[in-house]
Amino acid sequence: MAVRSRRNACAAGRALRARGVLPADLDDLTQDTLLGAWRSMRAGRFRPPPALPPADALRPWLAGIASRQASHYRDKAHRRYELAAADPDRLSAFAAPSPEARLVARGLLRAFHRLRPELREILSLAATGLSSLEIAASLSLPRPTVVTRLRLARRLFARALTRSRGWPR
Hints:
Blueprint: H1 2-18, H2 23-42, H3 54-75, H4 77-80, H5 99-113, H6 117-127, H7 132-139, H8 143-165
């Protein structure tokens, strides 16, 4: 019985790892998955099909629980915005941005998210300093397509900014 439960724990761990759980959190989330499965079994929610042996039905059922646990893991805010800082005092200058800067940033983000996803992707890659040739290689697109989409994205982004903020053209 111990070998089978160890095999199931490994299967749950593999399912969590495949869904993007960080190695540092893998043991904890595997334990949460198995604990959730145990509670569900005790509540009578594990009902294997009669044609399938319970041991064979357990693995996909555990994979489903692991998938939900990984989804909850990704949704947790403290996981998404965790920062490792060697010197926390160094970050104190950035702790309280001015309200005006926050409003400007919000307007920029709103205008950026109005673009189509493929235009947003090309514009964000260009903003990181990549050339059109590098963007074309990373997205597997022809270079003229990237240049055209980049020009369109810049034009639509500028138009969205001038309309929403009343900034000069």
